[in-house]
Amino acid sequence: MKKFKTESQKLLDLMINSIYTNREIFLRELVSNASDAVDKLYFASLTDSDIQLNRADLRILVSFDADARTVTVSDNGIGMTQDQLDKNLGTIAHSDSMAFKADNAERQGDDVDIIGQFGVGFYSAFMVAKKVRVVSRAFGSDEAWAWESNGVDGYTIEPAARDEHGTDVVLTLKDNTDDESFDEFLTEYGLKNLIKRYSNYVRYPIQMEVTKTREVLKPEVIGEEGDTEDTPASPEYETYAELDTINSMIPIWKRQKSEVTPEEYAEFYKADFHDFADPAATFSIHAEGALSYDALLFIPSRAPYDLYSKDFKKGLALYSSNVLIMEKCEELLPDHYNFVRGVVDSQDLTLNISRETLQHNSQLRAIAKRIEKKVTSELKKMLENDRDTYETFFQNFGRGLEFGIYHSYGALKSELSDLLLFWSAKQKKRVTFAEYVAAKEEGQTAIYYAVGETVERLEKMPVVKAVLSRGYDVLLCTQDVDEFCFQTMMNYGEGDDALALKNVAGGDLDLATEDEKAAAEAVTKENADLFAAMKEALGDAVSDVAVSSRLTDEPAALTAAGPVSLEMERILSQMPDSPGITSERVLELNATHPVFAALRTAQEAGDAEKVRLYADILYNQALLMAGMPLEDPVAYANEVAGLMK
């Protein structure tokens, strides 16, 4: 028995127990090695006219024997000599495929795609096997050799028999324990599932003998008159075994776009990403240069149920040379595009030796940046060319775009702001910021918006009606992130054309005329005692009581003087660990309303209790109209009932 080279036992133990973390990838590694062996033979046929080869005959065969507890991966590739078995399998971390790629780099084309890089993938077999036997016969040789090892003591190489060139890797699986079971790798379903998941797009057929069912044809019964008699009986079925090709081989993202129908893209999307609805949009990227890769991306037509839950995991499927590396590579998508599904395939990525993570994130960042720009571009095209589809998209995923602006502290404002849609109170439809600006009034210096739970409630708010009465449109926003997004943006547009974003329930909107301002100032001065009494009655609930220059029909309204709006306060208060942040509430009074006259009468009569009662009722009414919760609903109901006596 020969000993492993290169500090064999320590390195082998490190690989089996540390480098690889997912034991089921052993089949991916063995199939990839088999594909490389077939590729090397095919490459040899391209460069040596003496080698006559029919590519259609090249294949990889996977089989199992549940009784013997073996899994076998066979190929009819280039095979190995005795010396090559010793060199490639006896020296851990020696990669014959890597050397092949380096020696033939200039002569390889699209027809050859070597996968192996590190020479350690083979040893992942010892995660599931207690013994591995490799029988190989090199192309052009009459001799076959068998390499065998238990992964502990070393290995042996002995003469063997094999009918044709190629390699058989036979794994004798470990015995089951109370903690681990390996039986899943001894079933037709289990092996087919692993092939489809990790090796579905390996360029050569991966075949398995599978069990099928067919109806047994019964002989016709001929009657006495020579007629066929009808024998109504239940059909009988029999099972039989047949060699099937399990993998698809040609990835849909590698095919020319002109050769793929929209129906084929949709079927691929639904099958691979487990959605029953066709995607809203499909687009691809084909990049060549310092970093070459293919990407096929989909925008879903509906939001998954867990999109906004903490359990949702974003990411694109990452392939290297058609072999799945990661099912969801999070680094390829920014959070605001977490809804995008698809695949990225590159043979230029620098993987670690287990292929499960990447060594240099700079490569991923370059791909991710290109994908982000592509998604932005495609969404803008959808907005311009297919408005109905885009509006449905925005209803499903628009919240994430706004969150992207907020989470980036406004850094993504220029990229994402033109993709946002909001309901226009004036135009009665969804509009973009650009469309709002295009329809604004002459001399208008701000974009006005209101934030609340529903459009219907917002339309009835006094502060909204007040702005509309002056001819200005108001964006009615119903997402919990709207206010945070707007405050992060601060304005829309560039340079001197930028318009400030103003909440209609915020401080002074500067919409009053000079005459209106003068009138409000006069009323405030004349009724200073009344305002002081109301503020004292309301206590810490408000920061001020003032005359409103914006109200028309309603007696009072609640606004916020500081940076924290009423809506922000409402949302923050609903969080599990509420920070207790409150707004600076201002109770604004309509001096032309009959209620204000009643307040003045009570104040002039010295009826402090009635002033307190009226102040409390007006404040609670303003809270209700603003969509804010009442601090004491029972007390408010009793106060209203008291007026009815």
What does this structure look like?
- By secondary structure, the chain is an alpha+beta fold.
- The protein contains 19 helices and 24 strands.
- It is elongated, with a radius of gyration of 37 Å.
- 37% of the residues are buried.
- Keywords: ATP-binding, Chaperone, Cytoplasm, Nucleotide-binding, Stress response.
In short:
The protein is an alpha+beta fold.
CATH architecture tag of the largest domain: Up-down Bundle
The Cα radius of gyration reads 37 Å
- Looking at CATH, which topology of the largest domain would you report? Four Helix Bundle (Hemerythrin (Met), subunit A)
Strand content: 15-25%
Kindly report the spatial arrangement of strands forming the biggest sheet: 5-4-3-6-2-1-7-10
Spatial shape: elongated
Which CATH class of the largest domain?
Mainly Alpha
DSSP strand tally: 24
User: Helical proportion?
Assistant: 25-40%
Distance between the termini: 106 Å
Please describe the biggest sheet, giving its number of strands, its sense, and whether it closes into a barrel.
8 strands, mixed
Unreliable stretches: 114-118
Can you tell me the number of structural domains? Answer: 3
Helix/sheet category: alpha+beta
Identify the CATH homologous superfamily of the largest domain. Answer: Heat shock protein 90, C-terminal domain
Number of distinct helices: 19
What value does the average pLDDT take? Answer: 86
